[in-house]
């Protein structure tokens, strides 16, 4: 088939699955061209083909809309196979040409290790909540940047309309309209998914835990990035599994050669990664390496759990592709949430578990029965009626500026030998200090002065990152923030 025929089939398949409902507007020609990585001419040919099939219709000065039948449903028809979306990665953002903080060139641990980082993380998170502390160590985005008041209005209106709620409506996989809106977001970004694969969860944390529980059992070994986001280590620890750390490049992602040696040498039950804007390194894994990672693990039938919670917070022009895009075997368990892009307090996430979908849905039912209904419906209403894309554009622009500003200030105030990461999205900066610095000592000294940081110990089971810290740049820049960074730089200089 030609590219426009493939694109037409892809959009028609999304309509057939209910991602685009009858009477709803599909992507504009320019946006479809950008999101699917094709020319405007190709999109126009595809839309003309869809019009001839009776799938969409053109409305002057308004765009293209899904045609509806008398019963209100979208028209039927035999849709061809849906092609994978292009999802081109965004251009580089962050702090320019400066050298990124690099993890030590250590080999993977020779044997899997027990995981025990929860006590340190819990203690650190509690201290982050100290009143009036400068929250440079917080893992959470600044809540003032998010439309929580508007979402609360929807939630209150729903609560008034429904004095009681039928629990059956909220059993897994979740609220149908929210699932449709999630699927629509992927389709609008050039990465169509099957709504029937989506299982709504209590945040991405539950999605990750359920996915890991579906593919591995206590005592199994799981490969993780090094450094890695501590929620990954928590999931492994909670389920009584063992972890093996694989060196991770600050710009390219997990070391594929090192991972190949690990899976060749021992039995690995699963691999857990964050290919887009990894916490704490902030990189965006190149598409070719994403494809290679999926192929490497797929050849050995090893499931890969993809944490894509920062997917909407990119600094480039378009949302990056996912590992899910390259999965032909159903071995990628894709996890995401609205907690980092829309509302942290509502704790709504989802999993797309591939061939493990039935098992994840069953585990969801056994673990938490349901996900609260009002937050699901409130978020669905917001996505349907409000300017989510407009909110995201403001958020991305702000984070991109903040990343550059904080990087510049760290290099200005900290002693020679300090290096910073070059985040391509998200809201955290990874900082490498001179090797003699102990980040726990720095953490304690800073906390005594009313400033929090994320010590590098939280991101590994080993001591490879004892002289690294993670900083949060989501909060507006103030004189207090600048004074806190200057004070941290002075502490580091005195310790060095």
UniProtKB/TrEMBL annotation:
PROSITE patterns: HTH_GNTR (PS50949). Residues 102-111 have a biased composition (Pro residues). Residues 1-69 form the HTH gntR-type domain. Residues 75-114 are annotated as: Disordered. InterPro entries: Aminotransferase_I/II_large, HTH_trans_reg/aminotransferase, PyrdxlP-dep_Trfase, PyrdxlP-dep_Trfase_major, PyrdxlP-dep_Trfase_small, Tscrpt_reg_HTH_GntR, WH-like_DNA-bd_sf, WH_DNA-bd_sf. GO terms for molecular function: DNA binding; DNA-binding transcription factor activity; pyridoxal phosphate binding; transaminase activity. Signal peptide: none annotated. SMART domains: HTH_GNTR. Keywords: Aminotransferase, DNA-binding, Pyridoxal phosphate, Transcription, Transcription regulation, Transferase. Coiled coil: none annotated. Residues 87-96 have a biased composition (Gly residues). In the C-terminal section; belongs to the class-I pyridoxal-phosphate-dependent aminotransferase family. This is DNA-binding transcriptional regulator, MocR family, contains an aminotransferase domain. It comes from Paraburkholderia caballeronis.
